[in-house]
Design brief:
heterodimer, A: 337 residues, mainly alpha, two-stranded antiparallel ribbon, B: 253 residues, alpha/beta, globular
Amino acid sequence: MTIRARRKERLDRGIKVRATSIYGVSSLKEIFYLMAPWQILILGLLIIPLVLPSMYWQRVICMMCIFALLGIAFDFLANFVGIVCLGGALFIGFGGYIAGSLNSSFGLSPALTIPIASIGGAAITTLILLPCLPLRGIYFATVSLMYPLMMARIIEALGIFGGTDGLPSLATYPNIWVDQYLIIGIVLISTLAFRRLVNEDVGVVLRSIKDNDQAVRASAINVTFFKALAVFIASIIGCFAGAYLTHLYGWVGISLFALDFSILPIAAAVVGGRGTIVGPVLGAFILTPVSESLRAFGTLRIVFYCLIMAGFIVFMPEGLIKYFQRKYHQFEHWIEV
Amino acid sequence: MTETILLRVKGITKSFGGVTAVNNLSFELVKGEILGIIGPNGSGKTTLVNLITGFVKPQSGEVFFKDKKITGLQPHRIADLGIARTFQIMRPYHSLQVYKSLITPLYSSRVKRTTGGKLGDRDTVAMDLLEEIGFERDARVPYKLASSLPLGYQKRLELARCLALMPEIVMCDEVFSGMSMAEIGTMIPLIEKLQMEGITIIMVEHRLRELFKLAKRVLVMNFGEKLAEGPPKEVIANEKVREAYLGTETVPC
């Protein structure tokens, strides 16, 4: 009796080797292959509003981008700095309320409120998270999750910033194209910028802190300062998303501190692939429409949502992007052994 | 030749709960020397290193670096003064490539000050440093993940991380442990070279034979206290030291 077995053999395509040599630019096909990943991302993002022009999709696209930004912030902090930050709702809340109150009290236009809210919100977020930065892992996560809940209760109890009613009739964007392309542009820039940042020397310092903060301390680096810097950078895009959301709906309310903003980005990072920055963007673009389409099932949608998540965690724990990366870099074929 | 005292430890004490890890210990470190610190397991050697570098705060006692008190300072402040250390339990930056492990110390303000801001490309400096410390300068090893290195190379990398800080004092916490004789053989000239370059070295070791080739002065610790201090030969002949290492020879009757 002969036992015939097959196994998958993987062979490197050697893209990296060719990319650094003259051979890399010797054929058009190669050039396209090398450029493909980023081109797909950039063109894909720019085309989406054109292929999905309905009212329903316009809102979904905006939400996708907001979650993509929060996903990038989460992925950057968790997988490149070692801070598990569930502060998505905190970023959105601070960004939103700052932009909202500036607009309603002083009548500033979105062109001013959004930058102010992004930077100012990031500064405040960093400041209130600063005392907790020495905490690690789950402890920091708990604190960052607690803050938005606390903020919502404070606003409710004191009746400040419009209390439970929120601040209505704020400025909105001139038209639907500005709506969409503003945030798509920011998502693109953030993705590219964060990918760049983690490979710069500052990024390497941050990654070192994640791997072994004691050794970084012994290397004369102030760990708390760099952690705070990382939180600041990440919360800029988070607070931007909040300020953007405010002007998208023309309204600010305590629902900006909703837990969805903290939890969904993590799910996006799991689905898309942790530690890739692009992963959470892809994850958000898959999960948000799914989440929206499941709205028809009412509260039952949580069940479907959990099933999808569980499926990803069991069958593709590395996430989609890492899977695609492997396909991109390697051939696979069956051989008999 | 006048001896400059670089580091002065005065009556330092640290206890963890009921265990006194370091008890009223004092010693001085002369500029340019190699001081060995030996002692049986659990005698407080690593705690001493942690106390000096600020990772552990002492209950009493003081440490002076160039007559400036450094007890109570944050670890990164002490490192910033030029006191570098290796860790006994190594955790290399597992997600980083070997040469990228040296970016962190090169990014510090100490290096910027020392080089006057003329460091240039950190990647290149890191590569040079790796070569100096005995890494092959080829297309593979420096680009490997730091965690994939064999132990001997990880220890070298740990030392390279210290040197990248351009330190005045390097405290080596058991760099020889777990290394083969051949590896130690290549490390000894390296450490001698560092001494020639003017770096003062404290070596916490268990491998006495190799240590005695380097250190001209040895401090013996037992139960957190100083048992003996002096040249290796004297220390080894000391009755108390033999007792601590080998136990007393009593005839049961």
